[in-house]
Amino acid sequence: MSVHQKIKRVTTHVLHEMKLRNEKIAMLTAYDYSIARIIDQAEIDVILVGDSASNVMAGNESTLPITMDEMIYHAKSVVRGVQRALVVVDLPFGSYQGNSKEALTNAVRMMKETGGHAVKLEGGQEIIESVQRILSAGIPVMGHLGLTPQSIHKFGTYVVRAREDEEANKLIEDAHKLQEAGCFAIVLEKIPAKLAERVAKELRIPIIGIGAGIGVDGQVLVIHDMLGITQEFSPRFLRRYHNLSEEIKGSVKSYISDVKTKDFPNEKEQY
Hints:
By secondary structure, this protein is α/β, with parallel strands linked by helices. It has two domains: 238 residues, TIM Barrel, CATH 3.20.20.60; 28 residues. 41% of the residues lie in helices and 13% in strands. Strands 1-2-3-4-5-6-7-8 form an eight-stranded parallel barrel, surrounded by seven helices. Strand 6, helix 9 and strand 7 form a beta-alpha-beta unit. Helix 4 runs parallel beside helix 5 and helix 5 packs across helix 6.
């Protein structure tokens, strides 16, 4: 029996131990009960209820429009389907920036109403006060540096971050600050692989990458992208494990055809 099969429930402590023994952490997003149940049974380590729900579930252009209420709805649905994975929930844009008291209120609400296990916040030094307040209430926090989609209007583009020394140095500094504040892990998005590897080596806490190379402690992808449900999004870091978009379309076309030709339902499919 492999080590990860013996784990009844993945916790922040388990992730820390995985880093220590150099076992990679596998993380995927989920936004509903059915998918969460399937990927939990497949023994995914971490499920992120991402604000990417704004894009893949609601059809928005960015992650900015999604609200606390909507994130709570998705997270509650996911938690009901999970028995093993650690469930991390994104705090949405506007729920923690600039006001640490509000950040704490929203984080507490998220934990109480969803049954999630941790929250994730984007940013470094500029949100450190919010991170500290949330941690002071005993709520585990995952950080997120590099390309931070909630700051899309500040950057103006989704290009690779931290290529220049100044931004790279700030990222390293921010990562250390998040660790010192008490974050249990950090996601690094779309940054040079060498920089990500350096952060993973310098920090004690697990570093999860998305478009950050192989030298980190784990990987995360958006499930709709990885399964090929979404087709318009094809960054270099995305590996498609399926082409569900075409499969679903094919199945629906067969169903339509069967209904139109009166092939469905047949004798055996009625009462």
